[in-house]
Amino acid sequence: MSLHFETRAIHEGQSPDPSTGATIPPLYISSTYTQQAPGENLGYDYARSNNPTRASLETVLAALEGGEAAAAFASGSAACSAVLDTLAPGDGVVASDDLYGGTFRLLDKVFRPLGIEVAFAASASVVDFERAVVSLRRPRMLWFESPTNPLLQTLDIEALSKLAKSYHLVTAVDNTFASPYLQQPISLGADLVVHSTTKYLGGHSDVIGGAVIARNQDALERIRFLQNARGAVPGPLDCYLVQRGIKTLAVRMERHSQSARRLAEFLSAHKSVQKVYYPGLPSHPTYEVARRQMRDFGGMISLDLVGGLHAARSFCTKLKVFSLAESLGGVESLCCHPATMTHSSIPAEIRVPRGITDGLIRLSVGLEHVEDLECDLAQALETVS
Ligand SMILES: *Cc1c(COP(=O)(O)O)cnc(C)c1O
Questions:
Q1: Which of 176, 208, 241 to mutate for ligand 1's pocket (most ligand atoms within 8 Å of CB)?
Q2: Exposed site from 137, 171, 310, 342, fewest CB < 10 Å?
Q3: Which atom of ligand 1 is nearest the CA belonging to 209?
Q4: Rounded to whole angstroms, how far apart are CA atoms 70 and 83?
């Protein structure tokens, strides 16, 4: 019987505990495991190498992304780092220009100094990615996110994976903004999927975590080795919290998407809003790709306010239901000002031409009643106009 996403999200890796019948398997906090004889054990010896609670989470993550195996990490950044760590000095990686700030920092400040060549595609187009690939001496990897942060461009995963294949590159996709419920990069040709499970997978803003999921077991071998050797592993409680979040991922993503679509339409019609970026608005330049590639359009919206920095500051401080905070993907709605928060490390002369203006606001639409969210946006917009 082939089970649907929702059913697998609840049951994969979650068999009742055989010794007690506990429906929810207990949290394994033991750091070590008693062996029957030297080198003889029940599959676990030391909790950095493996842990039943972590193994459960890895099982469900692999199933939901359609991969053969997964490795959980202490954060999304540790997961990104493990993937880039598979490159050797002299190898090259091509990344999209619209990138999570922490990933940009890893590429620029950690891996570049170690001798990894990095090239950024000038835009989300396949042509610009190919241009970046051929600029490298020894290209090995294509790295991108979709939808991107904060302009929510949808990149064509199938076309980019095909390009990567023609140059024998590994395709790694950061699927944090979409979650496996909305899109599954492996089914579109990607080799590796990376997540900050801190966001939609955890879903409740109460845990930091990350994961790498691989199309095939072999591709994950080196990453598993690094998980143990570098040791950036998540604790059992963190794994448990992410797995608990995953059980409601489908219903959460549906409501996030439904509310965000309504708010995106409301914002588009408002006179104080210059521009709205939402993957599901036909006015978004990548709308056709999003429609083809995603089940729904997610809970993230960005908007450019008339009135620039002054308007943005006033808007953010007037919101009552949305909290002014970094991060995304939780049940509570958040608002962030990329120019002074998540993207403040990018100089204005690079940031502004890319569309990350002083008036840009990013919203993570939560699960509060959509009318309350709309009223909150309306009253905050009133003060800026
Ligand atoms: C948050 C985030 C990360 C980093 O994850 P942490 O869990 O904060 O280390 C990586 N990629 C994207 C797209 C993110 O939003």
A1: 176
A2: 137
A3: 7
A4: 12
Average pLDDT per 10 consecutive residues for the chain, totaling 385 residues: 95 92 95 93 94 97 98 98 98 93 93 97 94 98 96 97 98 98 98 98 98 96 97 98 98 98 98 97 96 98 95 96 96 96 84 91 98 98 86
Q: 175: Cβ below 6 Å to ligand 1? A: no
Catalytic residue numbers, as ranges: 48, 100, 174, 199
Q: Which two tokens stand for residue 97?
A: 């220009």
- For 132, the token pair is 């970046």
| Domains of the chain and CATH, by start | 5-246 (3.40.640.10), 250-384 (3.90.1150.10)
- Listed residue (69, 72, 36, 67) closest to 51, CA to CA: 72
Six-digit token string for 340: 């002074």
